[in-house]
Structure formats: structure tokens, C-alpha cells
Amino acid sequence: MATKSTRKTTPGYRCAECGWTTVKWVGRCGECQAWGTVVEAGSDPTAGRTTASAVTSPAPRIGEVDASQARFHPTGVDELDRVLGGGMVPGAVILMAGEPGIGKSTLLLDVAAQVARTQRPDGATRPVLYVTGEESAAQVRLRADRISAVADTLYLTAETDLGQALGQVEKTDPALLIVDSVQTLQSQEVDGTAGGVTQIREVAASLIRAAKERNMTTVLVGHVTKDGSIAGPRLLEHLVDVVCQFEGERHSRLRMVRAVKNRYGPTDEVGCFDLGDTGIRSLEDPSGLFLSGTATPVAGTCVTVTLEGRRPLLAEVQALLTESSGGSPRRTVHGLDTSRVNMMLAVVHRRAHLNVTSKDAYVSTVGGVRLSEPASDLAVALAIASAHDDTPLPHGTIAFGEIGLAGEVRPVPGIARRIREAARLGFKRALVPVSPEDLGTLPDGIEVVQVSTLQEAIMIRTSWTPPSRDRHAPLTAG
């Protein structure tokens, strides 16, 4: 008698974030190390198979696709347009992430009002829908009154249900949809609480589908975790077209927006904003915020030029050395990488023969700016040397360059661009690394000296006498 073969199926579990599978449930994914993302995947091996369906419209040739539908539309906020590559593209989905209270809602409410006031070629205005899930409509209205962001075609709704929000989209038919935030919306079609991995995936997929079908620009506000990453599944960043990071010190008015992903433009641009009581405004020239503005030179200070994306910004580094009262010297750093400042102290002590490691060192930047670029090494080292000798650098001097452990000054990108920015702001002298590339025509009114070692830079910082070697001779302005 033939027996019917049976196949025993074992329930499997799958990570909702990275797809890792296991035969038993665990609280933490063994692949991506995420907590609470492992869910039951089902036991039917044939489930989930999709077959081909009839094609309603054949795929056109790429040359027949109308590219005019993906042209940039300026938002009216110049610095945001700079980051996005020229403006917002119809049908694009933008994820704006940042810490709580950094100014995301203020910026996007201003953008919504600017877009709502923009007229089409036929003279009509474009409707904009702002969906808030964190505040009431009255609270958002108070902010709109404070920053003058009230427009006739700007619609506002407070919703936390995804179905209701999509219904508002159907009724309003907006050109721009802003959802604040994607972690507060919840779909009734899937399980889980708002902000969970399953809910965020469903909410994001539904909003992206609506944006593509309606050719509607959509901006999603995203929360961040303690380590600064965007909350929710990593899949969220892959689904959207643009990911923008909103940055800034809580005690500073300066805010920066940078694109870490952009399918329509560059990812090396940075937008600068000034957040005040009356709203947020674009800063086309933010360099003045990072300079102390003292009329006379002060020992222990040096101005450098850093590149934020492709934009050169001037920043001032200040250093103070005092006698140590204990056995271990104190190191206090603000706005710079502590380990890199410690390295500069060691290089100055060993290569320039200045006794700085036995003293308490306080190194900081002006205006709350954070310098993470190695090009600020030379300015840090010169500020430390100036503080040690109590001798200020000549007024109108800038310095930039990366310093190695051997005391060599290495070239950095964009030397000519940095020099032009310093000359535009009235600086007269520049200490720069020796560059193998031709710097081209330099602006008038600024004297440039190339140095190859830290010792050379420290020797000429007060007398401003260039080394005698030809390759280090001052570059003449053309």
C-alpha cells in the first residue's frame, strides 16, 4: 500500500529591514543587528510568487519619453534650491531628516507658503497641502503667522491616519505635499504601531505611489535616532529620491541643509540658513558668522577657509594655553575633533620644538561652526603656536592645509577657490600648502606663500618673510 508523502513545513522568520531569515524567532536580527524587526514569514513555500500579467501600455523608447515633466521648479528659498540642484522636481519624494527642534517644520512651512504664492504661466497659483501629525492645526497656524507663511492656496490638515491623509490629497490635488512627519502616520491595513518598521514601510510606499501617479512633489519629515541616523527601516532612504540632512547647533542660529542622496542633482552642496524669532532665512554669505570681528590682532587666533560641499567658508580658530595645575594637562575642545587637536599639539611640540603638551589647552571655533576637514590643521597649529609665544599673527592672515605626523603640510582640494574667497572678504595674506597643480590667476590684493612644513609656516607667521627657495616664492597676483 502506497503511502502519501507529506512535507513538513517549518514556520520561518524574516527580518523586515534587511531580509535575513531564521527558523526561530529572535529579538535581534543576526545580520543588521536591528531590534524588533524579525517577524513570521509564513510556511507556504509557494506564497508570494508573482506571475506576469497583461501589459496595458508598452514601454516607449527612451528617446520618446518627455523629459520636460522632470524639470526643476524653484521653491523660492534660494539655499534649498542650491541643495536640491535647482528646485523641486514634480513627482519627486524628498526625505528631510534632523534632530528635534532644529527647525525642519519652520523651513518647510516657509517653503510651502512660497510655493503656494508662485503663479503658473496661466496666472493661477498651485495648491499646497501640509499634513501635520505632531501638532494641531491651530499650533501650525500660530507658527505661520509668526513667520509670515500664510497663503490662500496653502491647505493645512492635522491627520495621523494614512487613509484620511490620502483622502485629503484626492480632494485638494496639491502640487506639493508636506508630511510632518512620516513616523506619525499609521495605516489601518497593516499591524503595528505608528513609527514601527512595518508602518513606516507601508506609509512611505503609499505616499510614494501617490506622488508618482499624480506627478506631485512630496516632502517627508523624518525623525532621527540617538546616533543621528534616520529612524525606521533603511529601506526608507532607498525608496525616496532625495535625502536631506538638517544640521545645526542648538545654541547657534546657523542651520545647514545638505543632500546625502539626490537622484536629480549634486550631493556636495550645502545650504546655510539663519533661524531667528521671525522665521528662517537664507544665508548667501555666512562666513561673517564664524569670525570674531576684533579690530586688532589677538594672540592665539587664526582664520582658515573650509569647504562645505563646494562652498568655501571662513572660520576662526582660537587657542589658549595656561599652566597646568595638576599632574595631567587638561584638553578642552569645541567645534573641532578632539583627537585631531591632540595630534596637532603633539606635532607642534615635537616638530616645532614648542613646549605645549605640558600645559592646559583650550581650542575652540567661533560662532558654533564645526570644522571636520583636515584642511584646518594648519590654522589650529598656528593658533597653538601663537598662544604659546603670546604673539598674534599679522592682521588679515589666513592659513589652511593638512599636517602630517612628520610636520609636512599636505595639499588640500580647492586651494584657488579658498584663496579667492579670502581675497573677496578683504584678507591680505595667505599661508597655503605647496600644490602640484597650477593655481591659475590669483586675485589682486592678496599675497600667497606656499609652505611645505610646519616649521616654515611658524617661522614666517610674524615676519612674513617667504623662504628663499623658488618653489616657495610668493605667488604674484594676475
Write up this protein:
The chain is of the alpha/beta class and 478 residues long. The protein has 3 domains: 13-42, no CATH class; 71-284, P-loop containing nucleotide triphosphate hydrolases (Rossmann fold); 288-472, Ribosomal Protein S5, domain 2 (2-Layer Sandwich). The protein is 23% helix and 24% strand. It is built from 10 helices and 21 strands. The protein has a 9-stranded mixed β-sheet, with helices on both faces. Strands 13-14-16-15 form a 4-stranded mixed β-sheet. It has a 3-stranded antiparallel β-sheet with strand order 2-1-3, with no helix packed on it. The longest helix is centred in the middle third of the chain and has 18 residues, at 197-214. The radius of gyration is 28 Å and the shape is globular. The N and C termini lie far apart (101 Å). A motif (RadA KNRFG motif) lies at residues 261-265. Belongs to the RecA family. RadA subfamily.
In short:
The chain is an alpha/beta fold. It is built from 10 helices and 21 strands. A hairpin with a 2-residue loop joins strand 11 (270-276) and strand 12.
